[in-house]
Amino acid sequence: FILMLSLTLGTMITITSNHWVTAWAGLEINTLAIIPLISKSHHPRAIEAATKYFLTQATASALMLFSSMTNAWSSGQWDITQLTNPSSCLLLTAAIAIKLGLTPFHFWFPEVLQGSSLTTALLLSTAMKFPPTTILLLTSHSLNPTLLSTMAIMSIALGGWMGLNQTQTRKILAFSSISHLGWMTIIITYNPKLTLLTFYLYSLMTTSIFLSMNSTNTLKLSTLMTSWTKAPMLNTTLMLTLLSLAGLPPLTGFLPKWLIIQELTKQEMTTTATIISMLSLLGLFFYLRLTYCSTITLPPNSSNKMKQWSIKKPVNTLTPTL
Amino acid sequence: MALAATLLHNAYFCGRCCRHKALQPLLGPLLSDSLSKSYSSYRRPGSQPEKKTTWQNVDLSFKKSIEVLKTQLGMLKKETEDHLAGPEGQSLTHYMLEQTRVVWEFRSQEDLNKWVISSDVEIGGKSEVYLKLGRNNQTALLYGTLNTEVPRDGETKYSGYCSMRAKPLVGSFARKKYYDWSNFNSLYLRVRGDGRPWMVNIYTDPYFSHQKDDLYNYFMFTRGGPYWEEIKIPFSKFFLSSRGRVQDDQHPIWLDKISTVGFTIGDKVNGPFQLEIDFIGLLNDRAHTEEFAYETYEKNPPL
Questions:
Q1: How far apart are CA B176 and CA A306, in angstroms?
Q2: Domains plus CATH for chain B?
Q3: Which residue ranges does UniProt annotate as crossing the membrane (chain A) (predicted)?
Q4: Cβ A158 vs Cβ A178: under 8 Å
Q5: Which of A233, B16, B58, B296 could serve as a FRET partner for A203 with CA atoms 20 to 30 Å apart?
Q6: Element at A273 (helix H, strand E)
Q7: Which residue in B180, B207, B251 is closest to A48 by CB distance?
């Protein structure tokens, strides 16, 4: 319980800060609070995930502090919104990219998500992304747009490509997260509100997916295939949510993509817009595959694991329909 | 940069080949495959003295490195195609429907080269172990003699073990590749033993080195008759041990990142042993419902 409290505290501190040190402190509190959550089950992979998470986040925090210090050295003030020194802007971009898991700093993300339990993975991919995104929002006017766009395009590409033949659901969601972060980052210098919108919708959809997977305890594709026997309603809504995450038109997930593409074309970045739409096709492929596995096909067998016959807690079937 | 990389890989491959053919493989069941160390000066009694250090094995020929680069690029291309095709390089429907899979078969010398044998010779013991193809090239025969005489170095108490271990998968540019067996829940072995108990070890190569000794083991009891035995060992029965000591904190093995599988014999009985293996496969036993065979109770329960 106290860990959850610390997480909320950390997030709040970072969000409401306008001094670099408080932002950094909030991020550190978040990191430290989530480490025991990741390594709660004493499995070597969980411990490995916790170690990796700690190392990457600590590096990123150090880089952030360093960038704020160089900025304070050159400009004499610690205000987050006034980041004037170009090298500290660059460092900050790198630091936030590491924290969020943008390419080329994404390598820790799938492994960390795979090593943690489903609820912790949920926290890692939604709640822990929030403070760095706010910092990015606050400083977005002074950051280098080319760098951000390059990283964003690479993230979308990589998220789609690497997610192609994963069999572990948590890794799939990790790659989907990377790709969504790419979408969020690409628009941040032009219209930060869209980033926020994307982030909120993405967290909502990911939360519903994680919670649905948590109640049926699906950790791998084969379990996903046999989940239709347990809660058929949940299965259908899971399919809808997955497609929404992929960004198919009548579902909510299409909204951020559409608005982002519109904004990009307004900014004369049509090639970028086309490239990212093409790349998100890759992602679409594996989302479709997930839905194919879970709902459209009925495998010739049902699960033989005792744990999965019972639903862990009453399932909220309404959340996915959002 | 690429040239340097290919030279290094050249040395790696040369070192590997030389060590396997010329010398008895020196890799114990608990140590992972790696280049021979150049830093430690203590040589265990059983290991051969190193006549040529690794850096002397480097072959600086340009042509060979181009060939190596070509093979590696070919492997990278194949990996990309596999990645596109689906999980484990097969299409998704194949993955969804498969219930059995043969991972290691022994039909040629090449298949035997995927395995490494070792014994307690590396700590100074006297057991012997050999691996050869069985009759008609249909099986692999692991045979030898176990000798429990303790090496006299003052610190070893027990001796007498022999083992056979699969080499880990190597991808393009010498990256580590892992097996993904999450679709299956038992190991299926077709063996013909001689009545001695064996231990099956599964190594999931961890990222950090402080976990490099953890191994999941279970026993395989062979019958010894002239008839083939099909032994099914569910993965839920594997227990965790590290450097041979069974750990307190047990958990079921995670099958999504498996590196190697090995067989060890160490039943403290002096004498010859023999194990004939036809194939090693995986099975998704639908009738097996056990999650984990050992109770994972809390050691310090809250009062």
A1: 34
A2: 62-97 (no CATH), 99-283 (2.60.120.430)
A3: 20-38, 50-70, 90-109, 146-165, 172-190, 196-213, 234-255, 275-298
A4: yes
A5: A233
A6: helix A270-291
A7: B207
C-alpha closest to that of A186 among A98, A274, A276, A113: A276
**In terms of Cα–Cα distance, which of A32, A30, A34 is closest to A15?**
A30
List the one residue out of B145, B231, B234 whose CA is nearest residue B191. Answer: B231
Instruction: Collapse the DSSP code of B237 into the 3-class scheme (helix H, G, I; strand E, B; otherwise coil) and give the result.
Output: helix
Range 174-203 of A in CB contact (< 8 A) with B: none
Q: Cα A266 from chain centroid? A: 26
Any residues with CB less than 8 A from the CB of B119 and at least 6 apart, and which? B125, B127, B128, B129, B144, B161, B162, B163
Closest in B85, B257, B288 to A304, CB measured: B288
> How far is A117 from A214, CA to CA, in rounded Å?
9
Task: Note down pLDDT in tens along chain A; length 322 residues.
Answer: 788 888 888 888 888 888 888 889 999 999 999 898 888 877 888 888 899 999 999 999 999 999 988 988 888 888 877 778 888 888 888 898 998 888 888 888 988 888 888 888 888 888 888 888 888 888 877 777 888 888 888 888 888 888 777 778 888 888 888 888 888 888 888 888 888 888 888 888 888 888 878 877 777 777 777 766 666 667 777 777 777 777 777 677 788 888 888 888 888 878 888 888 888 877 777 777 777 666 665 555 554 444 444 444 444 444 444 4
Q: What is the three-class DSSP state of A172?
A: helix
Distance of CA B180 to the CA centre of its chain: 15
CA distance A246 to chain B (A): 19
Give the contacts of A156 (CB within 8 A, at least 6 positions apart): A179, A182, A183, A186, A276, A279, A280, A283
Q: Which residue from B minimizes the CA distance to A301?
A: B286
Dihedral Cα B228, B234, B240, B245, nearest 10 deg: -30
Record: contact A306-B289, CB cut-off 8 A: yes
Nearest to A172 by CA among A96, A229, A242, A87: A242
Kindly state whether A79 is in contact with chain B, defined as any CB-CB distance less than 8 angstroms.
Answer: no
Mutate to test the interface with A, among B181, B285, B289, B290 (most CBs of A within 10 A): B289
Nearest Cα residue in chain B from A218? B182
How many Cβ pairs closer than 8 A exist between chain A and B? 69
Tell me the chain B residues in contact with residue A51 when contact means C-beta distances shorter than 8 Å. 208
Whether the Cβ atoms of residue B29 and residue B214 lie closer than 8 Å to each other? no
Buried b (16+ CB within 10 A) or exposed e, B170-183: eebeeeeeebbbbb
Q: Which chain B residues have a beta carbon less than 8 Å from that of A42?
A: 249, 251
The β-bridge partners of A220 are A168
| Distance from the B23 Cα atom to the nearest Cα atom in chain A, whole angstroms | 34
Report CB contact under 8 Å: A43, B254. yes
- A48 and B87: CB-CB below 8 Å? no
